[in-house]
Amino acid sequence: KQEVTQIPAALSVPEGENLVLNCSFTDSAIYNLQWFRQDPGKGLTSLLLIQSSQREQTSGRLNASLDKSSGRSTLYIAASQPGDSATYLCAAADTGRRALTFGSGTRLQVQP
Amino acid sequence: NAGVTQTPKFQVLKTGQSMTLQCAQDMNHEYMSWYRQDPGMGLRLIHYSVGAGITDQGEVPNGYNVSRSTTEDFPLRLLSAAPSQTSVYFCAARRDRGSDTQYFGPGTRLTVL
Questions:
Q1: Helix, strand or coil for residue B83?
Q2: Does B98 have pLDDT greater than 80?
Q3: Do residue A91 and residue B101 have CB atoms under 8 angstroms apart?
Q4: What is the four-CA torsion angle of A11, B42, A87, A46, rounded to 10 degrees?
């Protein structure tokens, strides 16, 4: 059974800092790895999706990498802003594309 | 284009009561799913559907029923609510072919007393 772990559970940084969020998964047989953002009391918003054949994806100040062999993905946020404050969730899709297995998230606070 | 909508936003039930959580999408996406989110845990898959008339169980299906009579709607039914079903419920939709991007609804916060 796939298990996804996110470290750290919470992170507080000053504005402007570059930061890395970590995600690890136990079963390397995944279809893709996805990163989501969740604001308090809201639904999830898709940020980046990395197919199993890819190594990284970029969108603006966000860069996500995938290393299937080691069961790890990282989300890099450059020049963090207070508006980046949210919970970030990673999720691994099974090879049948039927289910996402989520980590419990990293709660990020960017201090102005 | 509203994306994925869920009603109600909040609900309080007594143990043993039944209710239906509504989910609708206007993107014509084939795949829809229900997740629950509990404190300190990631989202867990309850049921999913790959199209009208086709549903299947996820990781935590006990106590929940679903049906999919149209592409747009995917309701989740609690037949006899239990306190263990207190949670935030999210519905999601994506294409079954092509892009794997998942679109989530805003969630329903359910409390069972």
A1: helix
A2: no
A3: no
A4: 130
Question: Does the pLDDT of residue A98 top 90, yes or no?
Answer: no
- DSSP conformation letters of A24-86: EES---EEEEEEEEE-TTS-EEEEEEEETT-SEEEETTEEEEEETTTTEEEEEE-S--GGG-E
Q: Which residues of A touch B27 (CB under 8 A)?
A: none
| Contacts with A102 from chain B: Cβ below 8 Å | 35, 42-44
Tell me the two tokens of residue A40.
């308090």
Annotate B79-94 with b (16+ C-beta within 10 A) or e (fewer).
eebeeebbbbbbbbbb
B100 touching A, CB under 8 A?
yes
Contact B101 A93 (CB under 8 A): no
Q: Is B45 on the interface with A (CB under 8 A)?
A: yes
Write out pLDDT tens, residues B48-65: 999 999 999 999 999 999
| Residues in chain B within 8 Å Cβ distance of A4 | 42
Q: How do beta strands B108-112 and B10-13 pair? A: parallel
Mean per-residue pLDDT, A72-99? 94
Q: Which amino acid is at A84?
A: D
Cα distances (Å, whole numbers) of residue B78 to A28, B64, B75, B81, B91: 35, 5, 10, 6, 15
